[in-house]
Write a structure and sequence with these properties.
This protein is α/β, with parallel strands linked by helices. The strands form four sheets. It has a seven-stranded mixed beta sheet, with helices on both faces. It has a five-stranded mixed beta sheet with strand order 9-7-12-15-14, with helices on both faces. A hairpin with a 4-residue loop joins strand 10 and strand 11. Helix 8 crosses helix 9 and helix 13 packs antiparallel against helix 14. It starts with a helix and ends with a helix. Pfam families: PIG-S (PF10510). This is Phosphatidylinositol glycan anchor biosynthesis, class S. It is a multi-pass membrane protein. Pathway: Glycolipid biosynthesis; glycosylphosphatidylinositol-anchor biosynthesis.
Length: 563
């Protein structure tokens, strides 16, 4: 009987040890493996490098001396190339470096013939037909004081392309070495570059998602707040508001006007974003405020302080494209009814706005089109009115340029800027916008990707699937390429890679699988697993404790017998 009791006890101990071994060696690893959160590999070290953003913008400038601007002795030392670096520390994590590579040479015979045109505009066109400057570059032609291309009060002419005419006086070159002449030209060429290419103010404003703008730079803050943020696409909506169809029947050739005035601009802006255009006519659409009648002018007026209340009631009727997440630019043409016509918009000085229109930052613009001249004493209502689309589109085109970030700031003194062509934007204006958009896209993408990395590092329960890891890696690679292309001066490629980076980073950041509420936090895991594992673990633990206790008892008995 004693032998059987000992054998049964040993068999129970072996069973308890076997069960414990299976639970510890197989059950726990299997449970850990099947319940762990899958987290794909992310390029964390590369993301941390991007968090400390060091941007270099390289611009190629070619300075061409026309006949009579350099002496024969100075002419022997050209062509030559000079490089200048200008560094700015924006904040502790962001630094900017501007590299200007300037190549000096003398004009060719064909360029001299082009500079002999009667006007600066004709000379600009002739120079463009000779050779087209690459995107992001600039050519400055230095002409003598005796040239008749520029008026007397103008020293710099900025054309429609990527060329500028710079006049220097005869006293500048006489008795000077070439080095002295270049040192005199350098600040003036840099001023031309800041007008036609990029300036530190514009680039700093483009970093608004990443750094805090200085309160003293009010102009750049206002410009950055007016324009829409960079986006892969934009929706443009033209709306005709007819508050009283009984007074007038309006006809507008919006399709033809878009093709004539808007599409040329959008075709040139194609590298920046995709655009879609639609139009609509809204009947019985009223403004949100009641205009006041000014008896001195026999007209109704809208003051500047009441314009903010105009948009909200009208916006409720505009509708939206639910299938698209792109920003919407709204352009409204409001034709007052016969009882409130003419209607004029006043500025903050109580003066009539010449365009009779206003725009709202990052929203769109509204133009009031008066038709009171059509209401004769014998007019039969409703009056048929054909809207002058050239007048309307001239206003909307100017507002569209502002809302898309095409700067129209006043040029420096003694600068003459050529008026807009039929394309609606000059080549150098497009380059200037591409520089800003590239930097803005890089800043936004780096902020998005670093925020995502910090979020995933802080919350360990979020699953990182392979698709998110692929998007993050793609964003990091595109960012590195965009920064490298900016450093090389390849503006078009830099813009393309920056667009790919911002798309990939936003797809990764807003992926639905990253929602933390889809996964159990640690306290909920314990609440679920304890009732499941505790009843099974208690007998095993008690058996193990019993085995340990018996082993200690036998060891004490052996020591007692040995003594």
């Amino acid at each position: 009987m004693l032998f059987k009791t000992v054998n049964l006890r040993r068999r129970g101990q072996l069973a308890a040890l076997s069960i414990a071994a299976v639970v510890i060696l197989i059950g726990v690893p299997l449970w850990w493996r099947t319940t762990e959160t899958y987290r794909a590999w992310l390029p964390v070290s590369q993301i941390q490098e991007l968090a400390n953003l060091q941007l270099q913008l390289s611009a190629d400038v070619e300075v061409v001396f026309a006949r009579g601007t350099v002496t024969p002795e100075q002419q022997k030392k050209v062509p030559l190339t000079l490089t200048q670096d200008d560094e700015h520390v924006v904040d502790e994590d962001t630094a900017l470096r501007y590299r200007y590579e300037t190549r000096y040479r003398t004009a060719t015979i064909m360029e001299e013939d082009a500079l002999n045109q009667p006007t600066a505009a004709e000379a600009d066109l002739s120079l463009h037909t000779l050779s087209e400057s690459p995107c992001g570059s600039l050519v400055v032609y230095v002409i003598p004081e005796s040239s008749s291309l520029l008026p007397e009060d103008v020293d710099v002419y900025v054309g429609q392309r990527r060329t500028a005419l710079l006049r220097i006086g005869a006293q500048t070159r006489v008795g000077r070495t070439l080095e002295q002449l270049l040192s005199h030209l350098e600040p003036r060429v840099k001023q031309v570059l800041q007008v036609m290419s990029f300036s530190h103010t514009d680039i700093t404003a483009a970093l608004s998602d990443r750094v805090r703008l200085s309160p003293g730079n009010k102009e750049s803050i206002a410009d950055s707040m007016r324009a829409f943020k960079s986006s892969p696409g934009y929706e443009i909506t033209f709306s005709l508001l007819n508050p009283d169809p009984k007074s007038h029947r309006l006809h507008w050739d919006i399709e033809g006007a878009v093709q004539t005035y808007i599409q040329p601009l959008l075709r040139k802006l194609a590298p920046l974003a995709n655009f879609s255009i639609d139009s609509q006519t809204l009947y019985y659409a009223m403004l949100g405020v009641n205009p006041r009648f000014d008896s001195s002018r026999s007209a109704y007026t809208l003051n500047s302080d009441s314009l903010a209340h105009v948009i909200n009631p009208v916006e409720a009727r505009l509708g939206s494209n639910a299938a698209s997440s792109n920003p919407v630019l709204n352009f409204l043409l409001y034709v007052p009814d016969a009882h409130h016509s003419p209607l004029h918009i006043n500025d903050h000085k109580k003066q009539e706005v010449p365009s009779n229109a206003f725009h709202s930052p990052r929203w769109g613009g509204i133009m009031v089109y008066n038709v009171n001249d059509f209401y004769g004493p014998e007019a039969a209502f409703p009056v048929d009115i054909n809207i002058d689309m050239a007048k309307v589109m001239g206003v909307f085109l100017a507002q569209l340029r502002l809302l898309l970030g095409v700067q129209s700031s006043a040029p420096p003194p003694r600068f003459l800027v050529a008026p807009c062509s039929s394309a609606g934007i000059a080549d150098w204006e497009l380059d200037r916008l591409m520089w800003s958009r590239s930097v803005e896209n890089i800043a936004t993408a780096t902020t998005t990707i670093t925020s995502l990395a910090q979020l995933l590092d802080q919350i360990g329960n979020i699953v990182i699937n392979d698709n998110i890891a692929q998007q993050v890696s793609s964003a990091v690679t595109s960012l590195q390429l965009a920064v490298a292309e900016l450093e090389s001066g390849n503006l078009r490629f830099a813009l393309q890679y920056s667009k790919e980076a911002i798309l990939a980073s936003e797809r990764a950041f807003f992926d639905p699988s990253l929602l933390h509420l889809l996964y159990f936090p640690d306290d909920q895991k314990f609440a679920i697993y304890i009732p499941l594992f505790l009843p099974m673990c208690v007998p095993i633990l008690l058996s193990l404790l019993k085995i340990v206790s018996d082993a200690r008892q036998r060891r004490r008995e052996k020591h007692a017998k040995a003594d």
